[in-house]
Amino acid sequence: MTNGINTRELILEILLEIEEEGRHSHIAIRNALSKYQFLPRQERAFITRVCEGTLEYRILIDYIIDSYSKVTVDKMKPAIREILRSGVYQIKFMDSVPDSAVCNEAVKLAQRKGFYNLKPFVNGVLRTIAREYKNLELPSREQDLVRFLSVKYSMPENLVNRWLEAYGEEKTEMILAEFLKEKPVTVRCRIHKYPQEEIYRSLTEQGVKVTPAPYLSYAYEISDYNHILALDAFIQGKIQVQDVSSMLVAEVADPKKGDYIIDMCAAPGGKSLHVGDKMGDYGTVDARDVSQQKVDLIEENINRLDSINVQARVMDATVFDVDSELKADIVLADVPCSGYGVIGKKPEIKYRVTPQKQEEIVILQRTILDRAAEYVKPGGVLVFSTCTIAKEENEENMMWFMNNHPFKLESLDPFLPQELHSETTALGYLQLLPGVHKTDGFFIAKFRRK
Ligand SMILES: C[S@@+](CC[C@H](N)C(=O)[O-])C[C@H]1O[C@@H](n2cnc3c(N)ncnc32)[C@H](O)[C@@H]1O
């Protein structure tokens, strides 16, 4: 309890918002924490870790609970289920909290939420688990590889199956393990405007731990700070939060001063602002997204970065815009996708995509690619990207695009660091896999109009 706020209750509220109302975890956590700005850093870190960890390890946690509880997780009331899940997460993964404290807090919370009768149940299940979980065996790897990987790495079986098929056992296990590792935040330094040493100094003077990010010299990984909104380098628009994989899009697009660039799906503006920066104060980036709410996010970033060559507007990328026909030097199609590449940062994604939704996503992506193709001027470039590792959204869409539009793939190698060069990058595309590469899962293909 701090300043009248009960930490466990806040955790329960956040988890219910994510599980019951379908809110994205990072948004639910951010909203809750910004309501209670006065919470000390340690408490904020605890709340964030328990919420993220409970979600990340949900399948393993449910396997543990179901092994010791008479009532299975799927039959429990949502609040009791989340109290138990977050309790098991703390017992299994957080040495800093004594098991007895976890049990006591969970029982008190159940009572406060009106489940007086269930106090003995919560107490019994958690105390048994605390005593015995170390003896519990995982499903047998030899008898059922998919189930084993699913429980060990908390990944739904259908996704494990698909990745085993696409990438084989070794890479799949690397990907699964990587998703569970904690990730630092990556930022792009706006070196065209501010010397990198000045940015480094500003961050470290505020106590931030700064380390070089992989692949790009102007990217840093930052940690050990309370709130990014309080960092001078952020407030002054000297840095932009962005994964290195996403920064590679602007590298590959290779804009020239004065280019006209259409970003079909731009919010919150990461790639638009990056290509804008690469053109100095020249050229125009026409940053579009489907709703005013999304465009507001782009505008917030344009204002913070004081960018003069990026303009945001509402435009549905599936609808043909006659005024854009054959006009753009570069079109960015960073299409909506299943997001499997960023499961490490947004763990709820793994529980949400169904086969039907997967098919709908591919149809939407192809519609946007059809429109994007129409806006590229002869000799111009289309960069297609996603933050997923699903083949149907990446390589299969790329092949489909080549068969249906007068474009050819173009090598990415001149724009990528040597260590990312491969047979496919020489052809014109790159599939980044978490654990195999040092970034989120991400796909980039570069096409030039014939
Ligand atoms: C992967 S995100 C884009 C990230 C962005 N390019 C960046 O680097 O910050 C995909 C975006 O597609 C947008 N979107 C979804 N459907 C769309 C449509 N029909 N037209 C335009 N944008 C759409 C979503 O609102 C979302 O902002």
From TrEMBL:
Active site: C387 (nucleophile)
Domain of life: Bacteria
Matching Pfam families: Methyltr_RsmB-F, NusB, RsmF-B_ferredox
InterPro entries attached to this UniProt entry: MeTrfase_RsmB-F_NOP2_cat, MeTrfase_RsmB-F_NOP2_dom, NusB-like_sf, NusB_RsmB_TIM44, RCMT, rRNA_ssu_MeTfrase_B, RsmB-like_ferredoxin, SAM-dependent_MTases_sf
Keyword terms: Cytoplasm, Methyltransferase, RNA-binding, rRNA processing, S-adenosyl-L-methionine, Transferase
CDD domains with a match to the protein in the record: AdoMet_MTases
Protein location: Cytoplasm
Record-listed S-adenosyl-L-methionine binding positions: C265, A266, A267, P268, G269, G270, K271, D289, D316, D334
Principal location class: cytoplasm
Gene3D superfamilies, sorted: NusB-like, Vaccinia Virus protein VP39
EC numbers: 2.1.1.176
GO biological process, one term: methylation
GO MF annotation: an example: methyltransferase activity
Residue ranges constituting the SAM-dependent MTase RsmB/NOP-type domain according to the UniProt record: 175-450
Catalytically driven reaction(s): cytidine(967) in 16S rRNA + S-adenosyl-L-methionine = 5-methylcytidine(967) in 16S rRNA + S-adenosyl-L-homocysteine + H(+)
SUPFAM superfamilies: NusB-like, S-adenosyl-L-methionine-dependent methyltransferases
Family: Belongs to the class I-like SAM-binding methyltransferase superfamily. RsmB/NOP family.
Function: Specifically methylates the cytosine at position 967 (m5C967) of 16S rRNA.
Protein name: 16S rRNA (cytosine(967)-C(5))-methyltransferase
Organism name: Blautia wexlerae
High-level lineage: Bacteria, Bacillati, Bacillota, Clostridia, Lachnospirales
